[in-house]
Design brief:
The chain has 124 residues and is mainly α. The protein has helices spanning 2-32, 37-40, 59-92, 95-117. It has two domains: 2-40; 59-117.
Length: 124
């Protein structure tokens, strides 16, 4: 049984070896380059870096992004359910409908809670 995992072991060793050799060569070549103040300064589209690199985002941006991911995952779970719905309904009855209905209901309550809290209001 161990022989079945031998190709995976070889691939892992080759990948780790390649990564190590690449890093080692990068360090060795990087040491030989001439360094000065101009080369070590950050370069952004020809502009001098005079201020902070990234602007601060509001926390609301991240909350809305998390809500989008949450409701996007809902679609990922409901699509396979919709594909097998007819066959499953014929074989096992209406249990599949109530399972999906409870799933969507929980997400609906979460959406109503987020809406009530004003998470989706961009003006605040």
């Amino acid at each position: 049984m161990l022989e079945n995992y031998l190709p995976v072991l070889f691939q892992t060793l080759i990948a780790c070896g390649f990564a190590g050799v690449t890093l080692l060569v990068s360090v060795l070549i990087g040491r030989s380059a001439r360094r000065n103040r101009v080369k070590d300064s950050p370069y952004e589209c020809g502009m001098l870096p005079l201020q902070e690199g990234q602007p601060r985002f509001s926390v609301k941006f991240y909350i809305v992004a998390m809500l989008f991911v949450l409701f996007d995952i809902e679609v990922v779970f409901l699509y396979p359910w919709a594909v097998v719905y007819k066959d499953f309904l014929a074989a096992y009855g209406a249990g599949i409908f109530f399972a999906a209905f409870s799933f969507v209901s929980i997400l609906g309550v979460a959406f109503a809670y987020a809406w009530k809290k004003g998470v989706l209001d961009w003006k605040n």
